[in-house]
């Protein structure tokens, strides 16, 4: 029975024994993310009421129209993390380069860097569909006391110390892992407290939901087309149900709870797919693997890919273990 009265703060203190929390820095880091999430949640929930909607006019590194809430969320997380002097560097999906937390010398004694997608799926905001924040935490690899370098951010996903997402949906939840399973906390907006609502989240080994933008079907590699047809066949436990929200956090959160596979393959339009390895794929892969699932690029484990640049994209297959392995089988056979 879930202890629904346990708050996120109490959970972190209780798990202080985990090596990840030992120094208290990670606890403070998760707490600062929790605070920033409340600030962003407040704005996202009233987005339809104030003139914060609509394109900001600017374009981000991806050449995508920046929604005002994108900018707001980006600034909220960067400001919160910077002001608390808990990390030595930040990289955001919305920024071209990484941010060194300079200021007082002691900042560089901090040992964590954070990579964040401040508001993923933001194109859904105008149509009132849920969006999310995704974060990924690593220990720096360059010497303490020196400014961070690109090397501190270009680490394979297996090096993650923690990863999580916030989903701004019918309720606001924080779901995260520090390598000891996955736990979900739901915000009680009346008192601004997150409660442990989904302890030890585990994704079913099998599922009946597939999430892909089938509008790209004609552009997919043959193996992907074959797998989609497999999902749609009248046989055994199929056809599966197709569910695609267009918001990675929402699609994956549902698949963790119900079982399913999300995939954003490469195509003739996007040779590496659309999703970013560092800001979306690695954190979601860590969470789903910790929940008992699998995440690959169709052939190789996502978390073992050595990143070459901050904003690189990879094809992404993520979800119930048996479903991802079946998709990989079709990809391999079509080679
Ligand atoms: P498409 C949102 O922009 C995002 O990064 C993910 O959240 C989402 O799953 C995907 O892109 C949607 O992309 O090309 O299907 O609209």
Automatic annotation (TrEMBL):
Family annotation (SUPFAM superfamilies): Carbohydrate phosphatase (SSF56655)
Class of this enzyme: hydrolase
GO CC annotations on file: cytosol
| Positions contributing to Mg(2+) 2 binding | 117, 120, 280
Where is Mg(2+) 1 bound in this sequence?
A: 93, 117, 119
Pathway(s) annotated for this protein in UniProt: Carbohydrate biosynthesis; Calvin cycle
Where found, per UniProt?
Answer: Cytoplasm
What this protein catalyses is: beta-D-fructose 1,6-bisphosphate + H2O = beta-D-fructose 6-phosphate + phosphate
Q: Which branch of life, at top level?
A: Bacteria
Name its co-factor(s). Answer: Mg(2+)
Record keywords:
Carbohydrate metabolism, Cytoplasm, Hydrolase, Magnesium, Metal-binding
Tell me where in this chain the Fructose-1-6-bisphosphatase class 1 C-terminal domain is found: 203-332
Family per record:
Belongs to the FBPase class 1 family.
The name on file for this protein is: Fructose-1,6-bisphosphatase class 1
């Amino acid at each position: 029975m879930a202890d629904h009265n346990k708050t996120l703060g109490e959970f972190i203190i209780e798990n202080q024994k985990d090596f990840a929390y030992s120094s208290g820095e990670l606890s403070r880091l998760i707490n600062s993310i929790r605070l920033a999430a409340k600030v962003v949640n407040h704005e996202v929930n009233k987005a339809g009421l104030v003139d914060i909607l609509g394109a900001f006019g600017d374009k981000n590194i991806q050449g995508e129209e920046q929604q005002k809430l994108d900018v707001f969320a980006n600034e909220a997380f960067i400001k919160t993390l910077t002001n608390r002097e808990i990390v030595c560097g930040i990289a955001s999906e919305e920024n071209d380069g990484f941010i060194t937390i300079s200021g007082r010398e002691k900042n560089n004694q901090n040992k964590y860097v954070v990579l964040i997608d401040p508001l993923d799926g933001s194109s859904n905001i105008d149509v009132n569909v849920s969006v999310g924040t995704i974060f990924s935490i690593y220990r720096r690899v360059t010497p303490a006391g020196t400014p961070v370098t690109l090397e501190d951010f270009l680490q394979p996903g297996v090096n993650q110390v923690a990863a999580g997402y916030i989903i701004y949906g019918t309720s606001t939840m924080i779901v995260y892992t520090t390598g000891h399973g996955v736990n979900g906390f739901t915000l009680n907006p009346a008192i601004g407290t997150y409660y442990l609502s989904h302890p030890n989240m585990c994704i079913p080994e099998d599922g009946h939901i597939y999430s892909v933008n089938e509008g790209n079907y004609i552009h997919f590699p043959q193996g992907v087309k074959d797998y989609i047809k497999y999902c749609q066949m009248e046989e055994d436990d199929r056809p599966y149900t197709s569910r695609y929200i267009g918001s990675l956090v929402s699609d994956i959160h549902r698949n963790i709870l119900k079982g399913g596979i999300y995939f954003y393959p490469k195509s003739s339009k996007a040779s590496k797919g659309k999703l970013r390895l560092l800001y979306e794929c690695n954190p979601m892969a860590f969470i789903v693997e910790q929940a008992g699932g699998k995440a690959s690029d169709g052939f190789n484990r996502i978390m073992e890919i050595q990143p070459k640049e901050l904003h690189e994209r990879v094809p992404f297959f993520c979800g119930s273990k048996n479903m991802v392995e079946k998709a990989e089988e079709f990809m391999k056979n079509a080679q």
